[in-house]
Every structure is written in C-alpha cells, then in structure tokens.
Amino acid sequence: MPGTRGRQIWRYFKRIDGSLIQIVEDWGRIPPNVLNDAKNDAVTHHVAHFKMLPIRETSVCPYKIASWYGFALSQRALAIGCDLDKKILLGVISAMTGFLKEEGVDLPGETQALLWTMAKNHRTPNLDDFAIGPNGLYTSFLTARTAKKAQRNSLI
Q1: Is 102 exposed, middle or buried (0-12, 13-18, 19+ CB in 10 A)?
Q2: Scanning 1, 65, 122, 137, which has its CA 20 to 30 A from the CA of 128?
Q3: What is the model's pLDDT at position 105?
Q4: Under DSSP, is residue 71 helix (H, G, I), strand (E, B) or coil?
Q5: Which residues fall within 8 angstroms of residue 74, CB to CB, at 6 or more apart?
Q6: Termini Cα distance of the chain
Q7: What's the pTM value of the predicted model, to 2 decimals?
Q8: How high does pLDDT run on average in the chain?
C-alpha cells in the first residue's frame, strides 16, 4: 500500500498493536500471518467503505482502522481456536480511547466498559439487540471526537 495514506495506516496498526500487546498477555499465541490477514481485511474494508459511501477522505481516521482491524483480528483469532477475541476488543477500545485522549477528549470508563460489552456481544447468539459491530464502534468514537470539536468551536 504505497503513499502517504498507506504509511499512515501502517503507523496506526503499529500503535494499535502496541496497545494490544499491553492488554493481551498471550499475544504471542496469534501467528504473524493472522495479524497480517486481519490488517489486510481492515484495509480492504477501508477501500470498500469509500466505494460504497459518499465520503471524501482528507486524512486517515484512526478510529476506522482500529475498529475494523480489531474486529477482523478478533474473528480470525477465534477461527484458529485462539480464545483471545474479547481481550483483543478490549485492547482496540483502549487504543481508540488513547487516540481520543490525544485529541483532548476523555471517554468515561463507564462508556468504555459499555462499548466493550456491546462489542463482545457482536458475535454472541441472541444478543444482537445488545451489540455493536465494527462500524458502530467506529461511529461511536467518531461521534465523541466530533462532539468535542463542535463544543470547542461553539466556545470560540
């Protein structure tokens, strides 16, 4: 993936992996090819996102990359019998919360816990009404960032 956007996406992957390593004690159980495949899934979803929706991207959104990568990695880990899916989602939410903090947005712990619970429910039978998927998780963080920016702008 050449170009500035490609380098930016891979920098986000590196930062997200750093958060995951801190949360997922058994990180070494996930083979490198599974990590790479999940990253490719996220990039493929990223491209499809722009083909499907009327979006003009001026920079890469870390929340998109983190959410799509986290859910893809969670699914791929389960597919190989690695039961780290819930910890992966927790690590991704931690990374996304860190991105928000860098932008001056504090996401309350209760909200983080709710998002994690809803993300875990994504693949749980009979809990669809209490779940959030990758696009919903991305949108939740984007909304938090956008609301904070709007609040700042209204004070100017």
Answers
A1: exposed
A2: 65
A3: 93
A4: helix
A5: 84, 85, 86, 88, 89, 123
A6: 39
A7: 0.89
A8: 89
